[in-house]
Specification:
about 475 residues, alpha/beta, 3 domains, 15 strands, about 15% strand, RNA-binding
Length: about 475
RNA sequence: GGCGACGUAGCAAAGUGGUAAUGCAGCGGUCUGCAAAACCGCCAUUCGCCGGUCCGAUUCCGGCCGUCGCCUCCA
């Protein structure tokens, strides 16, 4: 069975058919780098990382390109407000984001192009649109002539007449139509600028993505992704300028993730997490409190197209889910390599794999895939309790890890330096308590356990010794 | 106002035209010196509301109510 994927362009789930049978060309709109990245950006990155990992699991070669918008109004405004150089500041935020993605276990994209490094292609793209009559220069700006594209509006389902009848478009005397959008903006004093046939200036927002996509992936791609807030006008405009330039359809599938939102404590309203609303949880602050797998689980738990509500309780719940997932990796206690329990375990691995694949084939139903993983967790625990060990047990755990890694779960909490510092002391206390238990001094032993528990350290006794969880 | 998404147990969240996965939380039990972990069992006669189609709908259609997103920069 082929992979079924929801296409925003057709508003239907369709089988994934790629230009080259074994290759997926995927371009994802990345971030505008003018501030610390928040977990909404992380969600989007993880959604497309998940898609990429699963496509690779299913045998595709994925060419995955993610851009950085590193020159635009907000970057310039922010840099000026904080006394920094816009280009340098953007580069710094971009580098920080890349390292955060690494901590989030997001696989590196094939390329991370930036607008400032694609200037030649952007200028060429713009010039060719002018030559073809799809764009026009006006006082140092260049605008895309929306009226020249009969298909304009096909992604967002907004007929042009209707858009023009709205009052949202600002009237600009330089534009032929209020719906026309800037491909090139004339420079203002103090702004970074590049020379062009129309004078010093910088690119408009939409053109950079089309230019970068074509530069790195060719005129036609399989998947174009991004947050659903980009659907209009950004992606609509990308389609317009790209298809007017090449005469070919730009992207086969348009894939949009839902927004991460949270409850505003002041208004008690659910709202999108966004820099402009100031209700931001940054990636750094999340990761100081929780393992990256916890955030991954939050994202995996719901459908990527649905809005995802975040709050502290959800983070705590998912931290407990992670504990359960980790429990399946505890070692065997028995050595039975055959018998009904071992056979049942092998069967569970197979059925988990089938359920997992079936769920993921269905428009990346990660919640369903996760459910299959949890069923495998139980099967492994049952087998351990039944004394299964040796090769079959190790094979089941390996199969489990394999599926978890397709979802991008590391299942190996990164030990923080704090944890490492404190470990020898906890171990001393465990030794002490073990001696007390041997001497049947249970009151003292329990005191040690209770006091540790008060400090957030949970002890678990087993025939193999005592483990602890922080 | 226009376009779109969604409304399933205490919480989160899958799913199907034939009587509802999974996880967290909770309850009972096994195990344990006691716990924890693990395991076993329980936990939605019901899927926002009202109609319609059907032998049968949570799942299809229509209406209503509610939540959210986009329509301006935004993952």
């Amino acid at each position: 069975m082929s992979i079924q994927l929801y296409n925003s362009l057709t508003r239907r789930v369709e089988p994934l058919e790629t230009i080259d049978p074994h290759v997926v060309r995927m371009y994802v709109c990345g971030v505008t780098v003018y501030d610390d990245a928040h977990i909404g950006h992380a969600m989007s990155a993880i959604v497309f990382d998940l898609i990429r990992r699963y496509l690779e699991f299913r045998g595709y070669e994925v060419r995955h390109v993610v851009n950085f918008t590193d020159v635009d109004d907000k970057i310039i405004a922010r840099a000026h407000a904080t006394g920094r150089d816009p280009v340098q500041m953007a580069a710094q935020y971009a580098d920080e984001f890349l390292s955060q993605l690494q901590r989030l276990n997001v696989l590196p994209a094939s390329a991370y192009p930036r607008a400032t490094q694609t200037m030649g292609e952007i200028l060429d793209f713009t010039q060719r649109l002018i030559d073809a009559g799809h764009a026009y220069a006006a006082e140092g700006d260049v605008y895309f002539r929306v009226a020249s594209d009969p298909d304009y509006g096909k992604l967002s389902g907004r007929p042009l007449e209707e858009m023009l009848s709205g009052t949202r478009f600002e009237v600009d005397p330089r534009k032929e139509s209020p719906a026309d959008f800037a491909l090139w903006k004339a420079t203002k004093p103090g702004e970074p600028s590049w020379s062009s046939p129309w004078g010093q200036g910088r690119p408009g927002w939409h053109i950079e993505c089309s230019a970068m996509s074509m530069k790195h992936l060719g005129a036609q791609i399989d998947i174009h992704g991004g947050g659903n807030d980009l659907l209009f006008p950004h992606h609509e405009n990308e389609i317009a300028q790209s298809e007017c330039l090449t005469g070919k359809s730009f992207a086969r599938f348009w894939v949009h993730n839902g927004m991460l939102q949270l409850v505003n404590p002041a208004t008690r309203l659910v709202e999108k997490m966004s820099k402009s609303l100031g209700n931001v949880v940054t990636i750094d602050s999340f990761l100081t409190q929780y393992d990256a797998d916890v955030f991954r689980l939050i994202v995996l738990g719901s459908y990527y197209r649905s809005p995802l509500t975040y709050n502290a309780d959800i983070a705590a719940d998912n931290a407990r889910k992670l504990d359960r997932l980790l429990g399946a990796l505890l070692p065997a206690v028995g050595i039975a390599e055959d018998g009904p329990a071992a056979a049942a375990l092998a069967h569970s691995v197979e059925s988990a794999r089938a359920d997992f694949t079936g769920a993921m084939d269905n428009d990346f139903n990660s919640a369903g895939a996760l459910a299959a993983l949890f069923e495998l967790v139980r099967a492994i625990n049952v087998a351990r309790d039944a004394g299964v060990g040796g090769v079959p047990f190790a094979a089941a755990q390996a199969g489990y890890r394999d599926l978890a890694s397709v979802l991008g779960l590391r299942l190996s909490p990164q030990p923080s330096s704090k944890r490492q510092d404190v470990a020898p002391f906890i171990e001393v206390l465990i030794e002490l308590r073990t001696s007390l238990r041997k001497a049947k001094q249970f009151e003292l032993a329990d005191l040690v356990r209770t006091r540790l528990s008060d400090l957030g350290v949970t002890l678990e006794d087993s025939p193999q010794g005592t483990r602890y969880k922080l």
